[in-house]
Amino acid sequence: MQEALTIGQLSARSGVAQSALRYYERLGLIRAERTSGNQRRYHRGELRRVAFIRIAQQVGISLEEIRAALDSLPAARTPTAEDWARLSTTWRARLDERIRLLNRLRDDLDACIGCGCLSLRRCTLYNPEDNLAGEGPGARLVLPG
Amino acid sequence: MQEALTIGQLSARSGVAQSALRYYERLGLIRAERTSGNQRRYHRGELRRVAFIRIAQQVGISLEEIRAALDSLPAARTPTAEDWARLSTTWRARLDERIRLLNRLRDDLDACIGCGCLSLRRCTLYNPEDNLAGEGPGARLVLPG
DNA sequence: CCTTGAGTTGAACCTCGCTTCAACTTGCAG
DNA sequence: CTGCAAGTTGAAGCGAGGTTCAACTCAAGG
């Protein structure tokens, strides 16, 4: 098993376009060594990073936030299982939060449809606190989060 | 209760910037009548549409997809509760799907961290079907959805 | 050698979802 | 009627997250 991956190999393995991998490198999300001829060679560990990046993106986290999270991993040595676990703990909270939000949105929508209150009056979804009467009649849209 | 809302009123009520409301109109997401002096006047029902748009956006649905969904509402008459309910049913499925996906992502991540398999080998998260051995050894990243 | 495919760069371009701007016109209160 | 806030337009700009392109170099096989 060879130690380093070319960009083509990393792209094929990760399913991420080469242009995107170079872009991630510019943003500081992944790292590569260079051959004498200036070609990128990736540690196998970068595959983990790329996977992590795509997963995080899926749940709506920006590349900048992802970069910040990945910066918490030690650059000098290969991250251990504990390093990843520490990072994962933080992110689990994010996932939990998003799941909670989605559930609330769905349930609220169900409730609104059910009660026929999509008129935006007396509706917990659009007017959660019912304290917005300051500027004339009617509710104001308040988005959760 | 006045019948029509100005753009300023709709903006204040919905929490959406006027520029965004004009943008939505250009994309065909909302509609407005015009005064003799060419100013927009919104039916109160447009408030529902705007709220719907923001909610849908929150769960990561593009404006184009939202437009397609809203096109299913009758343009001629004010949508009834049944019209909205029909639309909501479709979207509930979307929400359920996204919730399912997020849960899976979280659980898989937990499992991967737990088993130390973030090496992308023998890992259900990165290699759900374990049938990707065609092009050399090692797993390929396969994103769900 | 020569060829061919894979890799390199910076710059330009793209879509999405808006915001900002300039240069006006309308609506309404005093 | 004046004055001013609120509305109008099209065009340009922005930030994120990339892709595409031209012009080149590198690596490996014959």
What features would you describe in this structure?
The structure is a homodimer of 145-residue chains. With 145 residues, chain A is mainly alpha-helical. Chain A has five helices and three strands; from the N terminus they run E-H-H-E-E-H-H-H. Chain A has a three-stranded antiparallel beta sheet with strand order 1-3-2. The longest helix of chain A has 35 residues. The first copy, chain A, is elongated and about 60 Å long. Chain A starts with a strand and ends in a 30-residue tail after the last helix. At the A-B interface, helix 1, helix 3 and helix 5 of A face helix 1, helix 3 and helix 5 of B. Chain A binds a DNA duplex (30 and 30 nucleotides) through helix 2.
Short description:
The structure is a homodimer of 145-residue chains. With 145 residues, chain A is mainly α. Chain A is built from five helices and three strands.
Could you say which structural class the secondary elements and strand pairing of chain A correspond to? mainly alpha
Q: Total helix count of chain A? A: 5
How many individual β-strands of chain A? Answer: 3
Overall body shape of chain A: elongated
Terminus-to-terminus distance of chain A: 47 Å
Key attributes of the depicted protein:
homodimer, 145 residues, three-stranded antiparallel β-sheet, 5 helices, 3 strands, 52% helix, elongated, DNA-binding
